[in-house]
User: What shape does this take?
Amino acid sequence: MRKEFSNIIERIATADKQVIFLTGDLGFMALENIRDAIGNRFINMGVSEQNMISVAAALATEGLVPICYSIAPFIVYRPTEQIRLDVCLHNLNVKIIGNGGGYGYGIMGATHHALEDIAVLSSFQNMKCFIPFCNEDVENTINAMFSYKGPSYLRLGFGIKPVNLSISSFQPIRNILKGNDITIVAMGPVVLNAINVIIADRVSADVFVVSELPIVDINEELKQSIKKTGKLLIMEEHVQHGGIGEHLALKLFSAQVTCSFKHLFAVGYPGGLYGSQAYHQQQCGLDVESLLLTIKSMLNE
Amino acid sequence: MNDNLKEIRKSCILTLLSLYKKANAGHIGSSLSCLDILIFLYFKQLNAADKFVLSKGHAAAALYTVLAKAGRINKKLLDSFYMDGTFLAAHTPCNRQIKEIIFGTGSLGHGLSLSSGLAFATKFTNKKYNIYTILSDGDCDEGSTWEAALFASQHKLSNLIAIIDNNGLQGFGRTTDVFDLEPLVDKWESFNFDVYVATNGNDFNSLEDTFNQLDFNNNKPKCIIANTTKGNGVSYMENKMEWHYLPMSDEQFQQAIKENQ
Assistant: This one.
């Protein structure tokens, strides 16, 4: 998604001279196009994420539109207090971009993963988190993010859209595939694993993606889907607490929607072992083979 | 010299002590430490377009007092200090409801970054202003302060003036015992700041001498190390760490007032 991101931001920042791009010393072979296009409005802020976020907050008070970029764990956790106080409590228009959400950086190891980013940020005042589910969805999502003039976070990952899937316009919760036997709700590109199962095994699943958190409301389409299928599988490359599982469960419980329920989430590092993103997905039951077994067992209930 | 500032100070310190007494609140020593700097800034130094960030947000009452005295906030607001439903809590508000308070603070280590950002913004907005910020010595323990220092000098933020309220006492000890900041001048100079020392940061003449030396043409951010006294002006509070926290008894309040009439 990084390529799509840099192309879209290049376009936005070229057109809007108020946009200031700040990077935490990352972006080699990825952001050069933005740097070349906007000159002195592209600033390498060094490895100083705390300062970067506070500087961005200050720029926003002057009507500028700062974008802060780093890999997801570095842009979220190191400057968490700066995000909470200087950006969120002051309700400032700062765009925070985290590349490689979840286990995206795979064998780089635990320091480079962001499994709790949505839990942390979606709990802050005024913050909206945006999560595209495939490369082709990045533009949609960035447009939604830029239409919100408050604190926001973009969680980028890696994912290529299956050829037959069409991308609908942005909504916080969107149906991306229609079916009758099970409802699947996912956050981010891990949904593509489920879609692979569905396509290969001709499962009739109603698939939704959550593209914005916190979830303000569950739409009628999702409610009706769950009532129709009676089976809900939620999946996310994020820890159990504070992800879409908890957010949705609360809303569904409040709306008195009941169903058979299974939640697949990031379990951390069982045995203290590391590997590729695919390896970690397998550990969490989020890979294609595990998902096939889970979905089949839910269908047979 | 500066007799008018002394008159203003007299009025401000009575207001400040009364605010703290009515609220039965602490942080008095911290406010008294930088009250004179705030008065100097708002009554002598700041131009109309200039900006200010109080990095040591626990001295908020001193800022509220001076803003009210300068007519920059409604005096009536002070009546709500520390009360339920107020804009004026113990630390500065983060709600952007008071135009004069651009940023709420209270967690140390934010002010220099925020001020650097405001200073840096002028490169894109073409506005002309200086940005002043007061840091505590505790602020200088925070790593983010030094991140900001690297940033400010790299980008030659000559419109940034950091003032260190160097009273030698921090939250739970003397700076010499916790983290000795000396040599403080060398530290800021090594970060490529243009450094000045106000030998007595509680004296308007010393402050005036120092501020008059500021060189705005050398492309460097500036740092004024203001040597101050915590609890300045109230004999039993001066240089005592406990006055970071304690509220005044009735007798102590009366004595503090008496010493400043």
In short: The first strand of chain B starts at residue 51 and ends at 54.
